[in-house]
Amino acid sequence: MKPWREVAVPHPDVLQGTFQQSEFAADISAVRDGKASREYQDASAFFDRTFITEGMRLLLTQVAQRLNGQGGEPVVQLQTAFGDGKTHTMLAVYHLAMRPGSLQELPGIPALLDQAGLMDVPRAKVAILDGTAHAPGQPWKHGKQKVHTLWGELAWQLGGVESFDLVREADASGTSPGKKDLAELLRRHAPCVVLIDELVAYVRQFPDGGQVLSGGSYDSNLSFIQALTEATKLLPNAVLLASLPESEAGSAHGEAALHALKKIFGRVQALWKPVDKEESFEIVRRRLFQPITDTSTRDKVCRGFFDAYAQEGAKLPSETHEARYLDRLTQAYPIHPEVFDRLYEDWSTLDSFQRTRGVLKLMAHVIHELWSKGNKDLLILPGSLPLYRGKTRNELLTHLPQGWDPVLDRDIDDDRCEAAELDTREGRFGGLQAARRVTRTTFFGSAPSSGTTRKDRPRGVDRARVLLGCLQPGQSSSVYGDALNRLADQLHYLNASGEKTLETTRFWFDTRANLRREMEDRKGRCEPGEVKGKLAEVLHRLTSGKGSFDGVHVFTPHSDVPDDGQLRLVLLAPEAAYSKQAPEPATDAALEYVRQNGAKPRFKGNRLLFLAADNDSLRRLRDAAKTALAWASIVEDIAATRLVIDQLQAAQAKKESETAEAVVQRAARDCYRWMLCPLLQAATDREPIVEAFSMNPGASSFTGELARVCEENELVISAWAPVHLRSCLQRLYWKDGKSAVGALTVWEDMQKYLYLPRLRRREVFEKVILVGAGSEDFFGTAYGQQGERLEGFKLGDANVQLDGTLLLIEPGAAKAYREKLQAEKAKVKEARGDDEGGKGSEESSEIPPQGVPPLPGEGELEPKPGTKAGPKPAPRSKSFIGSVEVNAAKAKMDLVTIAEEIIAVLASDPNANVRVTVEIQAEFPNGADENVKRAVGENAKVLGFTTGIWE
After folding, report:
1. Helices assigned H by DSSP within 19-149
2. Residue 950: CB atoms within 10 Å
3. DSSP helix/strand/coil, 902
4. Average pLDDT over the chain, rounded to an integer
5. Distance (Å, rounded) from C-alpha 941 to C-alpha 951?
6. Which of 8, 80, 221, 282 is the most exposed place for a label (fewest CB within 10 A)?
7. How many contiguous H segments (helices) and E segments (strands) does the chain have?
8. How many Å from the N-terminal Cα to the C-terminal Cα in the chain?
């Protein structure tokens, strides 16, 4: 079997690519003026390339009968879709009536006349009124004669000046001549033919409202058409042919004009029969190919295809096994019938695709490109169509919505498309170009239905038709079937309606990517800012639980991290990742936070710890974040109906999105595992260092693991022993002759300096002071110092309060001060005892020395022996009981005030036995919430409440 190029040779203009697209759009005015190409201008050449369809045969018969005065329809309306051969049919009538030679020179016409029983057709006058040739508001000239209207043009074409005189006044005034005048005009020049093309395009230009132009008015032109149809009916050898579009005449005014003209022509039944698919075979063959002489080879090829289809059985469409399909193969040769089926059944449904003319234009491009590239297929199949960067591709895409270029480039027919790469990787595909043939066939059969929902036909092309568009004799359909299965899993824009291996599955390309490929595409378009935002969102969720820190800052600039006493965890941005080999991006970023608070220096840098990403795990985390973002955007678009898919795909998208969220959270835990702690080894060090501590990604709780790392490595201290505080004070504060330091000064320094321990909260510091103050081994306390006097000095007394006046005194100095106080008190006591033994002396009024407090009970002196007792002092109070109601909204503040102003004063007396009981009453008119009950019950138990009853 020989390839098509060795049997069917294209016409020279097709072969050489010198044809013009406009040549397929017949221009009847150009033919009349002698300016058309030869195949349209020359009558013999025209009929040589014209296949006389059934509709054309009936019309030419009617015209021949009419011109012979033997019946036939006087008025014929040609109405069908654009590009379906109306003008071509008019040209056939024109050449039949105006032929320069005999009828025998017109191929096909003698046989037609014999069938109609006619001996001859008289030559006739032909007038052509082309609605696109003239503007109704601009007169045109024939020599020196100005013509304003269609009726003036009709008269001039039929008889020149003499005929124009019949309608001169009507032409000048823009009013339609009457039926009698038009009948007289036609009678003078009978037999005659009037051809009106693009009539709606002319009439719709007249404005509404009766406004008159040089070409008349809207109503006068409709009146002319009606009068002309009536006049034509009066003459036995005159015929009128007019073409009207089937629909869509433009604006609302154009639609009104079309409707009005349809009513005028409606009294005459149109004899036009559109070209069907079987006739198009011969139309295309005659116009594009030279006559086939090697019919035996043609028949052998067609038989080979038919036999191959029989061997494949049910894998191919059922009609391929019918005997009639062999006839179709022969008639369509060298083009496969499936190409015509798809063009006439699918592509012709597009508004811009003209049936016969559109098929001719497209196939001329296909044949030229295939011939130029040396295509050696046995037939021109859907899988043969050259869709890579050529005129065929451009012609097809002009009829489709925007967005198909990337589909063709990425999936279908490009040197680097997915289909071409599959052919390259797989030898069994590459030898046949199986993958590219499959994608071409699927595109050709499914692209016209993209974005539409036709109820009369399911979307896409089924597996059987894909195989039919690819298979040639000597090949196995299984190769193409395997290629189709592989492509269904790999291509970006290929969709399937179900399980891809089933025969009932339909495949289609769309400008919208399928879900997984859509996800990959969106993933690739993720901006760095979006990815960083997603990571921040995930890390916020991970660190949102109750943990060791008062504040957590995710990717927050150092200017926005407060410089206060709160313990804060800063999660460094991904670009500041940590690795043992290259720690600098993370450590430098951490030190910058410690030093800077925006444009100002940071004072409390020791309240910051840092969490950094592992550099080796960062790529996986970013990829997981992009995947999660892509799926989330798909789910969002589905919900907002911006992405219209079926319910199965919507459920799949939701499930994939949930999975992606879980993956990115696990990836974040794996990646953010380096706890960084800036520190100074000693107060004299100039530059801080950053220590890194690894977290366990597999821990059950992320915040729990943060707390563990902080506690075990003493990065954060939740419970501190007084011995450590004493050691710190001795090393840093009790030196150079200083034995006392303000407690709050130490706390403030702990927040500032990286060589000091980092306590979790101030309460930890307060507790260690209370515990240490209760012992004589760690430090003494006082509430200020004046000279050598210490106000409120205590040693071994835990009854202290942390405020701005509290001093921590070195234990040795505290003991010495206490001994000094005791000695001074002993001297005072001794001095008072000697004074009491004197004679007649006055009552002593000596005051204890400065800095030595009075002994207990020294506020009043006993009367001296031998003197008269004075009045008895008032009895002293033995107890105090007080109660106060506290506002719940200010309870914390009020209770602190009560503790300082009342309880602390009572406890200052060493002989006092102070007991404090807190009583809480809460009422819930609508009943307490279960969460409140549970929280209060647990906290009361921890705080040691003796009673805690819910009623």
Report:
1. 28-32, 38-41, 43-49, 54-67, 86-98, 109-116
2. 10
3. helix
4. 85
5. 17
6. 282
7. 38, 21
8. 100
Which residue from 194, 171, 152, 180 is spatially nearest to 67, judged by alpha carbons?
194
Q: How many CB atoms lie within 10 A of CB 672?
A: 29
User: Which one, of 749, 758, 679, 770, lies nearest residue 718 by Cα?
Assistant: 758
Q: Are strands 192-197 and 740-742 parallel, antiparallel or unpaired?
A: unpaired
User: Which of 33, 39, 34, 4 has the alpha carbon at shortest distance from 19?
Assistant: 39
Q: How confident is the model at residue 854 (pLDDT cuts 50, 70, 90)?
A: very low
- Asked whether 8 and 14 are in contact (CB, 8 A), the reply is no
Global confidence as pTM: 0.54
Give the DSSP H/E element, type plus range, for residue 267.
none
- Please identify which residue in the block is written with the tokens 């940071």: 602
279/530 Cα distance (integer angstroms): 59
Does pLDDT of 287 surpass 50? yes
Q: Angle, nearest 10°, between helix axes 762-773 and 743-752? A: 140
Report the distance separating Cα 830 and Cα 607, nearest Å.
55
Least confident of 311-315, 749-753, 827-831, 935-939: 935-939
**Beta-carbon contacts of residue 550 (< 8 Å; ≥ 6 apart):** 566, 567, 568, 761
Largest separation between any pair of C-alpha atoms in the chain: 180
Q: What is the pLDDT of residue 565?
A: 87
DSSP lists the bridge partners of residue 240 as 75, 194
Q: What angle do CA 808, 813, 819 make, to 5 degrees?
A: 120
**Per-residue pLDDT reduced to its tens digit, 673-701:** 999 999 998 888 888 999 999 999 888 88
Q: Long-range CB contacts (< 8 A, 24+ apart) of 304-307?
A: 304/1, 304/378, 304/473, 305/329, 305/336, 305/378, 305/379, 305/472, 305/473, 307/473
